[in-house]
Write a structure and sequence with these properties.
By secondary structure, the chain is mainly alpha-helical. The protein contains 4 helices and no strands. 70% of the residues lie in helices and 0% in strands. The radius of gyration is 14 Å and the shape is elongated.
C-alpha cells in the first residue's frame, strides 16, 4: 500500500466495485441460492457465474447489462441501474 498507484486502485475498487459485489452477493444470499443453483437458473456454466462475481472484485472484466439481468432474474429480482 506504499505505492500510490496501488493505493489509488485499491481505493477505486472499494468505492466503485465493492458496493455492487456486496449487493449481488447479498441478493444471492437472500434468495437462498448457491452459485451452482444460479448457474442452473441462468442456463450457463459455473465459470461464468464465478467470473461474474469475481469480476466485481478484480475489475478485469465488466459484465454486460444483459448478463446482470440474467443473474438478477435467476435470483427472482430485476436489475435497476441508477445514476446518483
Amino acid at each position: 500500500m506504499d505505492d500510490p498507484a496501488v493505493r489509488a486502485e485499491y481505493e477505486r475498487i472499494e468505492r466503485e466495485e465493492m458496493p455492487m459485489l456486496d449487493t449481488i452477493l447479498k441478493a444471492r444470499a437472500e434468495a437462498g441460492l448457491t452459485q451452482a443453483q444460479v448457474v442452473e437458473r441462468m442456463g450457463t456454466k459455473a465459470p461464468a457465474v464465478a467470473r461474474l462475481e469475481n469480476a466485481l472484485v478484480t475489475g478485469k472484466h465488466s459484465p454486460s447489462i444483459a448478463t446482470l439481468q440474467k443473474y438478477a432474474a435467476a435470483l427472482g429480482k430485476k436489475l435497476e441501474v441508477r445514476f446518483s
